[in-house]
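Encode chain A's predicted structure.
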Amino acid sequence: MATVYEVSAGDLIEAAAKDLKENVKFKKPGWADYVKTGTHVERMPENPDWWYHRAASVLRKVYINGPVGVQSLRVAYGSTKNRGVKPEEFRRAGGKNIRTIMQEFDRIGFTEKVLTKGQCGRRVSSKGQSYLDKIATNLLKK
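Encoded structure for chain A:
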């Protein structure tokens, strides 16, 4: 059985996003079609399925780096803002998107909260780990 570490990140995220949309019935909120991903971007994403791609990417990051919180993921998805003549500055990504995605994964059972001393945030549950490992195994078989 393959793990997330043995397949390329892009292929895994693409396959997981497709599966989250079609089979898992991962809920996309209505406001997700009109929102930007952070203050560092000027417009909303052009891909209509960007929510599922971000969700798959968040699940992979929680799997690899967990336990992680919303603030560390905001930094991971942030980028530099073009401020015209002034120097560029780093801006964190929007937290509402990431928080809503992680709450949805909690509802499905793919992640769980960790509230021990020294570690707070979320980590992948055994159900989420087996889900990603099955997708990685299917990718290696192809």
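The CA atoms of residues 9 and 91 lie 24 Å apart.
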